[in-house]
Specification:
Strand content: 35-45%
Distance between the termini: 35 Å
Shape: globular
Strand order of the largest sheet: 1-4-3-2
CATH class: Alpha Beta
Length: 125
C-alpha cells in the first residue's frame, strides 16, 4: 500500500501576488484556478500539480545550491522549449541556462521575484 496518491501543489514565494499571477499567466500559460486571496493564489496547467504562490516580504526564494550552483525547485515539461526560450528572451526574462543534454533540452530562468524555474523537453520532441 502506498500512503500517498500524488503531488497536490508546489509553493513559491512572491512579493506582489497580482503581478506574479499576471506574469505566470502571460509568459508561461498558467490559469488561475481559484480566486486569489490577499495572501495566496493557486495556478494550474493542463497537467500536473497546482502552483501555489504565497505573498511574502521575506528574502528567501524557491531555489537551492549545490557547490555554489543555483538549481530550481520546480521543473516544467514542454514540447516547445525553443519557442518558450525565444518568448522569454523577447520579454527580457533572465535566462540562466539553455542547453542540449543529449537526451533532453534544459532551460532555466528567473521569474520577477528571483525564483529559478526549469523547463525540460525530450530531445526527440
Amino acid at each position: 500500500m502506498r500512503p500517498l496518491d500524488s503531488v497536490y501543489h508546489l509553493q513559491i514565494p512572491v512579493t506582489d501576488l497580482t503581478a506574479a499571477i499576471k506574469w505566470y499567466v502571460d509568459h508561461l500559460g498558467f490559469a488561475e484556478t481559484w480566486p486569489a486571496t490577499d495572501r495566496h493564489a493557486f495556478l494550474g496547467l493542463p497537467h500536473g500539480p497546482f502552483l501555489m504562490m504565497w505573498r511574502t516580504e521575506d528574502p528567501e526564494r524557491a531555489n537551492f545550491t549545490i557547490d555554489g550552483e543555483t538549481f530550481p525547485v520546480v521543473l516544467f515539461g514542454t514540447r516547445r522549449i525553443h519557442d518558450l526560450r525565444k518568448n522569454l528572451m523577447d520579454a527580457g526574462v533572465p535566462i540562466t541556462q539553455f542547453q542540449d543534454e543529449g537526451t533532453h533540452w534544459i532551460l532555466k530562468f528567473l521569474d520577477p521575484d528571483g525564483n529559478m524555474l526549469g523547463v525540460i523537453q525530450d530531445s526527440n520532441q
